Amino acid sequence: MLVTNEAGHILSRCGREERLSGMVPEGRTLAEFLGEEPSRQLLARQSGPQRLLWRAPTPEGGEPTVWHLWSQPLVGGGALVCVSMPEAQSSEVPVARERRITRELLRPSGDLLGEQRAFMLAVLDADPSLVYVKDRQGRFVFANKALASAYGTTPDELVFHRPDEVHSKEEELQVFDEIDQRVFATLAELRQLERFTRKDGTVGWYDTLKRPLVAPSGELFVLGITVDITERVRMEQLLHDTNQRLELAVKAGNLGLWDWHVETGRVYLSPVWKAQLGYEAHELPDTFDTWNDSLHPEDRGRVLQVVQDYVKDASLGDRFLNEFRMRTKDGAWRWIAGYGVVVRDAQGQGIRVTGCHLDITERRQREQEAELRRANARLEQLARMKDEFLANMSHELRTPLNAVLGQAEAMAEGIFGQVTEQQRSALQTIDESGRHLLSLINDVLDIAKSNAGRLELELEQVPVEEVCQESLRLVREQARRKKISVAYSSDGEVQYLHADRRRLRQIFLNLLSNAMKFTPEGGRIGLEVTSREAGEAVAFSIWDTGPGVAREDVQRIFEPFVQLDAGLTRQNEGSGLGLALVRRFVDLHHGMLEVDSEVGRGSRFTVVLPVGEPGADEVPAARGDSPGDEPASAGVSADSLSRRTVVLADDSEANTRHLHSYLVAHGYAVRIARDGLEAVRLCREVQPTLVLMDIQMPRLDGLEAIRHLRADHVTARIPIIALTALAMPGDRERCLEAGANEYLSKPVRLRQVLEVMRRFEARA
């Protein structure tokens, strides 16, 4: 027994334990005797006594001895400290065997102590946890049935054995022993997750709690309570693996997760969800408004309605899909596929909606591009169908028109006998009407060529004054009939223009015809030519005193087939293609088209074209002949012509009749072939001076017939003129590529055919 003051100095000691006499001299402090921590606990001012275990080293340096410490606070300060002596240890093995708790020591029934002991063993054996007690040497002094079963033995066989005597996994035994030693050293409770390989080879996981256990005698043991958590660890690992797979899937698929509790309004938006819109996780709050405000205004109503319908109506199912646009941080719009699943209560009402967002912008772009390609393919197909239709219609219209105009021309020239003035006037009306119909057909074909990108220019040096006068001559007669005066003025500064003469004349004729058509009787029209840009450009202004065009209609009049006077009561004929062609021809010449019009006061259309610099080899085109003049080769004698044989290949009786009569009247011998095979045969037999080849014929078309003739050395050098109603983009090129020397589009003037034939004869 020791008496101390408040500072812990030992004031007195008494007792029969001589072993403490040298260790506890008076005047020393309790901390020097026991250590700081036990001294502090024993001197603490508490209402009751304090009890501690103290491990005192032996003088020989052997294993420390455990002592019992007890303290009682004294009135006025200080404490009474009692140190109890452990019983002397004799032979360690017999004592250890007596400490065993085995089933062999159970006494017969009637012994109260034995019955209580048996009952406690039954309780411990019924516990599925592994319960055991180990001494300092690591031997089991108690083991319940659950522990023995894990080792594959019985409790009595396991008691008084070390784990390494019944277990072979060294790494596991090392962990068990390390924990035991830490408990002995610290006298503290430890908890550890342990891996244990059972007798049958299966691996289990255990949650182990180990704590110091002091026997009544003062001896120290380790009490272990181990719970089998193998299934829990397996499920945790499975859950971990599942979560990891889900996380990888979400990351790989760039899925933005969301969760909405309908009743509470609580919303969760994952970091990936926000990243899809270009935000960091902290930049957007997890609210319903965040999602709602990001929706495209055109999609918001539809998307919200779908979600509400699925929440309220269980018959729709639990899963839904929405595709919509969402605004990103930089203001762009991304296409999102929103997949949702509705969680319902017992009444079928949706109480929670969860799902994910998938960015499908690239997919939508691919779909739109694919749809655009399909639309373009459909448009190309329609364009081909339109071109084929126009080609067929052109052929069907030109073929009979060729016969009409040809017969009228032949009759007017007296091929079939003398005609009276009245008959000549009727034939002129037929010719004019046919030419008008031909101009309409040509306009339609020019529009088709322009749309197909096949409208090309044949540029040359064009005399400005000459082409203007040609155009005016063609409209003056009609203007005279309407009593419309035609004016012309030019500053004369630009004499030549680098342009397509035929297209330039077509521009002037379309504009002059429009001016004359819409100008009432007694009005005036005119053509003015002025230089611009110091002679680098020239402006052609066609003006009239007609009704004029409203400002809002100016752009419309240049669209194909558009006519401002399009009702049933319209007064002016036309297809509505003239101005559309004018604009396209001007664009091809890299020019400008200006319109100045006022309702009630007339219109002025000005075409501004660049003059262009002629190349070194370009000179003004010689225009010594006109459509009515005879060519230079007209000097060929009639006797020479009579010896010329022409093969006329055409399956149309109407076309061959008038052309045959016309050529015979001009001294040619004409052989007629009704198909391509007959044309090839005749050419081989008679070796004609020239071949007039139609293209659309039975048995063998004109293109193949030309190729056959060019492949045969006998007929390879015979001039061939393709005379066909095919006038669509590319038809001329196809004929020339097949081997034709010239291409004439029906309907064609008979005199023009004769001129081309004489030109080839002159070359021969």
From TrEMBL:
Superkingdom of the organism of origin: Bacteria
Residue ranges occupied by any PAC domain in the UniProt entry: 186-241, 320-372
Protein name (record): histidine kinase
One Pfam assignment: PAS_3
Organism, scientific name: Archangium gephyra
Residue ranges that the Swiss-Prot or TrEMBL entry lists as coiled coil: 358-392
Enzyme Commission number(s) from the entry: 2.7.13.3
4-aspartylphosphate PTM positions: 694
Matches recorded under Gene3D superfamilies: 1.10.287.130, 3.40.50.2300, Histidine kinase-like ATPase, C-terminal domain, PAS domain
Region feature Disordered, mapped onto this chain: 616-639
Keywords: Coiled coil, Kinase, Phosphoprotein, Transferase
PAS domain segment(s): 116-159
Catalytic activity: ATP + protein L-histidine = ADP + protein N-phospho-L-histidine
First-level EC class: transferase
Keyword match Phosphoprotein: yes
Location of the Response regulatory domain: 645-761
Ranges of residues in domain Histidine kinase: 392-613
